[in-house]
Amino acid sequence: MAPENLVFGNGSNEIIEFAVRTFMRPGDEAVMAQQAFVVYNLVVQAVGGKAKAVPLRNYTHDLSAIGDAVTAQTRVVLLANPNNPTGTIYRREEWERFLGQVSRDVLLLVDEAYFEYVEDAGYPNSLTYHAADRAILTLRTFSKLYGLAGLRIGYGIGPKELIALMQRVRQPFNVNAPAQWAALAALDDAEHMRRSLEVNRQGIDYLQKEFGRLGLEFVPSCANFILVRVGKGQEVFQRLLGQGVIVRPMGGYQFPEHVRVTVGTMVENRTFISALEKVIKAF
Ligand SMILES: Cc1ncc(COP(=O)(O)O)c(C=O)c1O
User: Fold this and answer.
1) How much is the pLDDT for 106?
2) 3-179 belongs to CATH 3.40.50.10810
3) Fewest beta carbons less than 10 Å away: which of 136, 148, 175, 213?
4) Best of 10, 37, 109, 222 to mutate for ligand 1, by most ligand atoms within 8 A of CB?
5) CB hemisphere CA count around 272 (13 angstroms)
6) Residues of the chain with CATH 3.90.1150.10
7) Quick one: which atom of ligand 1 is closest to the CA of 13?
8) Is the minimum distance from the CB of 9 to ligand 1 under 6 angstroms?
9) Nearest-CA residue for atom 6 of ligand 1
10) Which atom of ligand 1 is nearest to the CA of 141?
């Protein structure tokens, strides 16, 4: 990858801001899934843009409906694959159909923050679709698998003309030196990556099995968190908090009956399940 194809940010979050601030003007449209990473909508609103939110289908991006929502006013389509908060992915066939459907004038921002966790063979790595006549901006981050969220470093990969424009919007000192050193060290630490993936796989399997035992519906996850239907999400969140366990209530994502739990170590996962079991039985 050439340096001209890369832009670094204070987390990949900042790359979302660069892209929207660089390529959208007040009144322009951005299309996204209704229940995708909440920052997309906020950033589009902040530049006076119009966010067109397309409902998920079966907890998954509905790429065909997203393609239908694109108009001549659409500047950017924002996609999270895997999606947060559902942990779902769209697959190669749908993605390729979508590429055939959407005008090449539209920037496709493909947020792959959870890329490293995906095991599904049908997963389309957006980097392999970068082409001279198609504007794709792929986002990656050191916040998830690499565990450096607090240091804030992520990056965007795209056509050099687009990256050059985004560099003009970027503050010159946006990524601090410790974050850069840590990112470089993380790239060399294959053993840490291997262990993180193993802990995540074990955690996902354990949590999904336990949700089954507790009779709780959940969305099978390709990432490092799971969306699980617990009934009164906000109340379950509060009661878990009382037991020292923090999950994310999902009312803001229009999933009032769900919480999203991030996979922890096996000790943390067991603590969570035993707290959840108590909370649910007390209702
Ligand atoms: C889909 C998605 N994209 C981007 C981010 C931002 O991550 P960061 O700014 O830490 O790289 C998150 C964080 O939760 C996310 O879920």
Assistant:
1) 98
2) no
3) 213
4) 37
5) 26
6) 191-282
7) 9
8) no
9) 13
10) 11
What's the mean per-residue pLDDT of the chain? Answer: 97
| Residue 228, burial from CB neighbour count under 10 angstroms (0-12, 13-18, 19+) | buried
Token pair 């209704």: residue = 34
How much distance in Å is there from the Cα of 35 to the middle of ligand 1? 14
The amino acid that residue 241 corresponds to is L
Q: Residue 283 has what pLDDT?
A: 82
pLDDT value at residue 114:
98
Which of 136, 195, 201 lies closest to 162, judged by CA? 136
Is 135's pLDDT higher than 90?
yes
Which residues, including other chains, have CB under 8 Å from residue 2's CB and lie 6 or more apart? Answer: 160
The DSSP bridge pattern shows strands 29-33 and 74-80 to be parallel
Select the CATH number that applies to the domain covering 191-282 from these four: 3.90.1640.30, 3.30.450.40, 3.90.1150.10, 3.40.50.300. Answer: 3.90.1150.10
Residues 6+ apart with CB under 8 A from 10: 152, 153, 154, 174, 175
In this structure, the residue with its CA closest to atom 8 of ligand 1 is: 11
Cα(99) to centroid(ligand 1), Å:
24
